[in-house]
Design goal:
The chain is α+β, with helices and mostly antiparallel strands. Helices cover 38% and strands 29% of the residues. Helix 13 crosses helix 14. The protein binds arabino-flavin-adenine dinucleotide and P-hydroxybenzoic acid.
């Protein structure tokens, strides 16, 4: 088999890249380790930047998003005593859009099927070969077809944190930076009406909590938990009772609870791989970087990589110009580190970590007061959250 771009990974990064390349008439094949059902079953992210919504539109997959996504012009921050609002629209002139990653990935898959895109599921034991040559190839096995090979001009590593692409870059070339935080998030999805029409980020003395949503009858809640907690360690009752103790009383009083239809634990860590390219292999999204979900940046950062790589590939195939490809890693890494910085700052502001001294807690209180009272601080936070920090 032969194509122009072999895309490893059928998550949001891989599908978005495949659609954007298709729009430009650039032949590509997506290779996904799991089944479509497994990929679409992942709940994950919930907030999209306005620029990412436009990118999904450029990929031809935004019809349902534009119809059903909830536009949020701001968010509520609770400092443990009082709540205040950050007015994204007023401060940054942009909003964010609440639309679950599950729905987005489904839309991307539906569009991909509409255009007759090529995707191979259950691609096991995938390996990338000759990435430093101008004719790399990918091998894999599948029950249906046995050992397979695909030759390509370029390979896009969109296979997430546990994928094979990043590890294809030799240890002598690859530098990995990681910061693991001593906490995790326990997330619950429930078919209940959201407690508020905007998100509530709560920095309570008992730990962080987040009230989010998917639509008017589907809510997404998180509480900070111990890093070693398992979802099954928490009953629904225990979850709801703890959430109520961490959010402002006025919201706790009207919180609609119900059975969890999904419950999962997400570790809090930041990770960056340098470089994000090696020869004709280019890494996008979680394959190259991970951020704590506090800033709602993981999926948006992945989309930004995809936008850069698709533009660079379009430039190459249109005119032979290689500057976009040659500068991809430097551009994407400069952005990734700013996104890591914002996500870690926002996480540190809102979470309580083991070993924090009374001095640390007073500093945290001062930082929250600074965000509440100073327009300059709100400008930095708002611009970062809506996606201006690039
Ligand atoms: P993904 O991991 O989504 O997709 C990679 C794909 O590659 C997968 O389908 C995988 O099966 C496939 N793959 C892996 N190895 C392969 C191989 N060897 N061969 C072929 N295919 C292979 N972000 C937020 O903004 N907010 C959140 O609340 C949030 N919650 C999260 C919760 C969890 C549990 C996780 C893991 C992440 C969360 N994220 C969140 C971040 C998440 O949304 C990612 O940023 C987003 O999925 C990135 O998309 P991809 O880069 O496509 O990687
Ligand atoms: C979500 O709705 O899943 C969500 C929203 C905002 C975040 C993280 C997760 O910061």
């Amino acid at each position: 088999m032969r194509t122009k771009v072999a895309i490893i990974g059928g998550g949001p990064s891989g599908l978005l890249l495949s659609l954007l390349l298709h729009q430009a008439g650039i032949d590509n094949v997506v290779l996904e380790r799991k089944t479509r059902e497994v990929v679409l079953g992942r709940v994950r992210a919930g907030v999209l930047e306005e620029g990412v919504v436009a990118l999904i539109g450029a990929a031809g997959a935004s019809d349902l998003l534009r119809k059903h996504a909830l536009r949020h012009d701001g968010t509520v921050i609770y400092d443990g005593t009082s709540a205040f609002r950050i007015d994204f629209a007023g401060i940054s002139g942009q909003s964010v859009f609440v639309y679950g990653q599950q729905d987005l990935t489904r839309d991307l898959y539906d569009r991909h099927a509409e255009i007759g895109g090529q995707i191979i599921f259950n691609a096991e034991n995938l390996a990338i070969h000759d990435a430093k040559s101008d004719s790399p190839f990918v091998t894999w096995t599948s029950e249906a077809q046995g050992a397979m090979q695909l030759r390509a001009d370029f390979v896009a590593g969109c296979d997430g944190f546990h994928g094979v692409s990043r590890r294809t870059i030799p240890d002598t070339v690859r530098h990995e930076y990681e910061k693991v935080l001593p906490a995790a998030w326990l997330g619950v999805l429930s078919q209940t009406s959201p407690v508020h029409h905007e998100l509530i980020y709560a920095a309570s003395a008992r730990g962080f909590a987040l009230c989010s949503m998917r639509h008017h009858n589907l809510s997404r809640y998180y509480i900070q938990c111990v890093a070693t907690d398992l979802a099954e360690d928490w009953s629904d009752e225990a979850f709801w009772s703890e959430l109520k103790r961490r959010i402002p009383g006025e919201f706790a009083a009207k919180l609609v609870t119900g059975p969890s239809i999904e419950k999962s634990v997400v570790p809090l860590r930041a990770f960056v791989c340098e470089p994000m390219q090696w020869g004709r292999l280019f890494l996008c999204g979680d394959a190259a970087h991970i951020v704590p979900p506090t800033g709602a940046k993981g999926l948006n950062a992945a989309a930004a990589d995809v936008a850069d790589l698709s533009m660079a590939l379009c430039q190459f195939y249109a005119s032979g110009e290689q500057s976009g490809l040659e500068g991809y890693s430097a551009t994407a890494l400069a952005r990734a580190w700013k996104i890591v910085r914002f996500s870690l700052w926002f996480t540190g502001l809102l979470h309580r970590f083991p070993g924090q001294s009374p001095f640390d807690l007073n500093l945290q209180r001062a930082d929250l007061a600074q965000l509440r009272d100073h327009a300059a601080m709100q400008k930095i936070m708002s611009d970062s959250y809506v996606g201006f920090v690039r």
